[in-house]
């Protein structure tokens, strides 16, 4: 059996999420500006997304820009937004080959009108694809929970169930992540998928995001399969 077939045979991963950390340090090590680290970060993102497809993983979530990232120098913020804009243009042109349902997690209002419209149009136009890509962009887990609560209150809710809250999150309809991978060596969750991560397996690696690729992802999947998930049972 090939490695790909063997990995698919085991309990299927329904949702994988990535904290793509380490672009800045990757650039610094090479004497490059941080912005270039993010450019190589996009290349890594494309490789990893493709590899998730090869491994049959139907939902991928990435943390591209957090609610806290606005504190970065304006030049860097602008470069991340520009990279996203370029990615979206390419997505729009080649939607058939991307074959992904695109969903943004986060409040779109701080982005300019053109960008917002582009994001919303792509969400609408890709709605029929089965595989899902959730992109956290101006995303924060706490902000997401507050946003969900306010939406439920606005609908008249006085009390809510876990299911109702889950259904009001940006990831509504997606299974919770089985595995969350953080690159870049830090051992924290940084306000990512706080609600959805309740039973996720966490995998941390020192590899910097631009160096993360198929081999590193397979190593994480291997480790995932060695873990026993008990969901609070025995
Ligand atoms: C964390 O590395 C990375 C980010 C804050 C941005 C990630 C963005 C991308 C990979 C581009 C997103 C675009 C698309 C199209 C998905 P860091 O800058 O915090 O690195 P450091 O910890 O080494 O400073």
Report on the architecture of this protein:
It is a single chain. Helices cover 45% and strands 15% of the residues. With 234 residues, the chain is an alpha/beta fold. Strands 3-4-2-1-5-6 form a 6-stranded parallel beta sheet, sandwiched between helices. Helix 4 runs parallel beside helix 6. The chain is globular. Bound molecules: farnesyl diphosphate. The site of farnesyl diphosphate has 18 residues, from helix 2, helix 3, strand 2 and helix 4. Farnesyl diphosphate binds next to helix 2, helix 3, strand 2 and helix 4.
Number of strands: 6
β-sheet strand percentage: 5-15%
Helical amount among residues, as a percent range? 40-55%
Radius of gyration (CA) equals 18 Å
Instruction: Note poorly predicted spans.
Output: none
Note the quaternary state here: single chain
Largest sheet: 6 strands, parallel
Q: Per the principal axes of the C-alpha atoms, what is the gross shape?
A: globular
What is the residue-averaged pLDDT? 95
Report the bound ligands by name, code or SMILES. farnesyl diphosphate
Order of helices and strands: HEHHEHHEHEHHEEH
Give the N-terminus to C-terminus distance in angstroms: 32 Å
Strands side by side in the biggest sheet = 3-4-2-1-5-6
Structural classification? alpha/beta
Number of helices: 9
């Amino acid at each position: 059996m090939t490695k790909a077939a063997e990995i698919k045979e085991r309990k299927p991963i329904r949702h994988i999420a990535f904290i793509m950390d380490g672009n800045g340090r990757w650039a610094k090590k090479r004497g490059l500006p941080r912005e270039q680290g993010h450019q190589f970060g996009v290349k890594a993102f494309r490789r990893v997304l493709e590899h998730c497809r090869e491994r049959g993983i139907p939902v991928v979530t990435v943390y591209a820009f957090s609610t806290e990232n606005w504190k970065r120098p304006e030049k860097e913020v602008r470069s991340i937004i520009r990279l996203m804009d370029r990615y979206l243009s390419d997505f729009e042109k080649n939607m058939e080959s991307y074959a992904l349902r695109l969903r943004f997690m986060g409040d779109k209002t701080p982005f300019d009108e053109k960008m917002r419209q582009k994001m919303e149009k792509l969400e609408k136009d890709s709605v029929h694809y089965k595989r899902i890509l959730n992109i956290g962009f101006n995303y924060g887990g706490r902000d997401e929970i507050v946003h969900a609560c306010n939406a439920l209150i606005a609908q008249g809710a006085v009390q809510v169930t876990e299911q109702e809250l889950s259904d009001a999150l940006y990831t509504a309809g997606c299974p919770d992540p089985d595995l969350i991978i953080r690159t870049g060596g830090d051992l924290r969750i940084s306000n990512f998928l706080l609600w959805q991560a309740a039973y996720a397996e966490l995998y941390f690696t020192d590899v910097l995001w631009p160096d993360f690729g198929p081999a590193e992802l397979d190593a994480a999947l291997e480790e995932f399969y060695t873990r026993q998930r008990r969901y609070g049972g025995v």
